[in-house]
Design brief:
- Helices cover 72% and strands 0% of the residues.
- By secondary structure, it is mostly helical.
- It has one domain (4-138).
Length: 152
């Protein structure tokens, strides 16, 4: 159960709030790109299409990416840091797997593409740590971060 202090502590004044928003908006952008320009989205992902008809798969990926970003937004608006932490942490499997798929297809030499995916996973791991740490500290009544200054 969320304490009132925890819900008030996590807001636009929290660094982790903005870091989650950055990922949410970023993956929504990637999804929109896949829908509007599937071939460009696939090239950016690291695995281009081999057939003109593959564009439909790009659009399928696009809508899933948009959902992945949208699913985080209600937790930001409602300031539900602990829930956001669990959802965000669970989602790390996506860029990890994407990086493995790029390596399986293109080999380790395609550093530009697999490092984007695994860099995203690392970023998400760090942000998840901040989210869980902040959620744990926020339940302490009278915590110095509650209601003051920039928070994690």
């Amino acid at each position: 159960m969320k304490t009132q202090n925890e819900r008030l502590a996590w807001s636009v004044r929290s660094l982790s709030w903005w870091l989650v928003l950055l990922v949410a908006l970023g993956i929504i952008f990637v999804g929109v790109r896949f829908i509007l320009m599937p071939a460009a989205g696939a090239e950016g992902f690291g695995i281009g299409f081999s057939d003109v008809g593959d564009g439909v798969y790009g659009r399928v990926k696009g809508i899933r990416d948009i959902f992945s970003g949208l699913v985080l937004l209600p937790f930001l608006v409602m300031r539900m840091r602990r829930v956001a932490a669990w959802v965000f942490s669970s989602a790390i499997i996506i860029p990890l797997t994407d990086g493995m798929l790029v390596i399986a297809r293109n080999g380790w030499g395609d550093i530009a593409h697999w490092s984007i995916h695994w860099g995203t996973a690392l970023y998400m791991l760090v942000v998840s740590g901040l989210l869980f740490r902040g959620a744990r500290e926020a339940v302490v009544v009278g915590h110095p971060r509650v209601g003051t200054g920039l928070q994690q």
